[in-house]
Design goal:
The protein is mostly helical and 469 residues long. The chain has 19 helices and no strands. 36% of the residues are buried.
């Protein structure tokens, strides 16, 4: 089930909300847990069974770990928990990829082997909820949190529907207190609804429109020249940002409505001044997860330059692999890591004007997105070749595809990807006063919701990119 759908907006969400606020408070967690499970089960009973089993297994391992006195014994349980969770993730997400690698390696030595491996369906959001579960058992081992003795409460943390299938990745320590006790005010609910509507409108108006034009360019590479290629990747650059950030907005807003405060996931990444700055702003919950659970345990930057280099390569290798079982994603991760390492080593950005630094980051990011969007490495390299072909071949194709609506949305996408609108809004609020500003703001959100619903009712193109991760 997706947030940007009639079934969610007019059936699941109202039923969940009404039940939550009218039920006895001591059963609210159970109600949310049941509805979250139903939300996930909408995508398939097999995947729902998997998340249910993972909840029970990790609950049992957590209870077992808590009862042990010696840290060495706790470590054994931690290893079992990590092995189980990574094993599940590895099997469902990477098994077929590993079979392809083995087949390719064998064929290199002249041996032909046909492996009739079953095609394993990828459970939606498995990368997200697996990392969340692992944060619970690791923090429990570290003594940073207390064991959750209620399987309902632990199940709620793992399956909480707002951020279950596309993040942000929420650590147990971030909402530990809110699972047991949370207060909800009318102002908080209103703010949550507005945040949800903002995300919904970004998704339906900006992400989907940019995605339509991006698909045309990527699906018909034989018809494009270099200008069309840049238009295509520029549109995809906005699509992936608004697609993912809109889901995070909706998740954070829904969380607020039910009394949870999830971490922010994006902070205007396309105005970054370096690749390191980009990763402080893009998918921040994933960046922090890898920092706390991989980079720092590996030694971070505390064991010399050579070890720091290796640690960074490892982190960005797994960052790419986390996104998908493909060489494209692995290369994309290492590509980003390479630029970050170059920036740290040679510090060539320090004396460059800010405007030039922003252009530098945008160009690197956009070229990197080609590997994210293309079907394989061959297609990615071919598309990048078009970006730098300087060939005006078939410019007519581009002109036939672009209309006034695409141009308006493209300009809006540029505008809202920077903090300019936020700054203008703050100045307007100061000049016209809180009362008038709030009335105009509320009216605008109501209008955005109506427009978004209209888009949903007629949508033929409504993908969510990060569902496959």
């Amino acid at each position: 089930m997706v947030f940007a759908s009639a079934i969610f907006l007019f059936a699941f969400f109202p039923i969940t909300l009404i039940g939550y606020y009218f039920i006895n408070p001591k059963y609210q967690n159970a109600w949310l847990c049941i509805m979250s499970f139903a939300f996930y089960a909408w995508g398939g009973l097999g995947a729902a069974g998997l998340i249910l089993i993972s909840t029970v297994v990790n609950y049992g391992l957590g209870i077992w770990m808590d009862k042990l006195q010696k840290q060495n014994h706790k470590k054994i349980v931690l290893i079992l928990a990590i092995a189980y969770n990574l094993g599940i993730l590895g099997f469902f997400k990477y098994f077929n990829f590993m079979v392809e690698i083995v087949q390719g390696a064998i064929s290199k030595v002249g041996i032909t082997v046909e492996m009739d491996a079953p095609v394993i369906a990828l459970p939606i959001g498995i990368s997200f909820f697996t990392f969340q579960i692992m944060s619970y058992v690791i923090d429990l081992y570290r003594g940073q949190i207390k064991v959750q003795k209620s399987i309902i409460n632990l199940g709620l943390y793992i399956m909480l529907f707002p951020q279950l299938i596309a993040g942000p990745i929420v650590r147990y320590i971030d909402i530990e207190k809110e699972i047991s006790n949370r207060e909800i005010t009318a102002l908080q609910v209103k703010h949550g609804l507005k945040r949800f509507i903002l995300g919904l409108s970004k998704k339906m108006i900006l992400a989907n429109t940019m995605g339509e034009l991006a698909d045309i360019m990527f699906n018909y590479p034989e018809n494009i020249g270099w200008i069309s290629a840049w238009v295509g990747i520029a549109c995809y650059t906005f699509q992936i940002f608004y697609d993912f950030s809109s889901y995070s907005d909706m998740a954070i807003g829904l969380g607020e409505i039910f009394g949870f405060h999830f971490p922010e996931n994006f902070n205007y990444p396309y105005v970054a001044l370096s690749m390191q700055d980009f990763w402080r702003r893009w998918h921040m919950s994933l960046t922090k997860w890898f920092r706390d659970y991989l980079y720092i345990p590996l030694g971070g930057n505390r064991k010399g330059n050579a070890r720091t280099l290796i640690n960074n390569v490892i982190v960005f290798f797994f960052t790419g692999l986390w996104h998908g079982a493909s060489w494209n994603y692995i290369f994309w991760g290492l590509y980003h890591g390479a630029f970050m390492l170059c920036e740290k080593k040679w510090k060539y950005l320090e004396k460059i004007p800010r405007a030039v630094r922003r252009i530098y980051v945008l160009l690197i990011t956009m070229i990197g997105w080609v590997f994210f969007r293309a079907d394989n490495m061959t297609a990615a390299l071919k598309y990048i070749g078009e970006l730098f072909s300087f060939d005006f071949f078939n410019l007519k194709f581009l002109l036939l595809q672009i209309n006034n609506w695409y141009i308006v949305v493209f300009l809006l996408a540029i505008l809202f990807s920077s903090p300019i609108i936020k700054k203008i809004a703050l100045k307007c609020k100061t000049k016209i006063g809180n009362g008038v500003y709030d009335f105009l703001c509320d009216s605008a959100y109501i209008a955005l919701f109506i427009v978004s619903v209209c888009f949903i009712s007629g949508a033929k193109f409504n993908p969510f990119i990060y569902f496959k991760f």
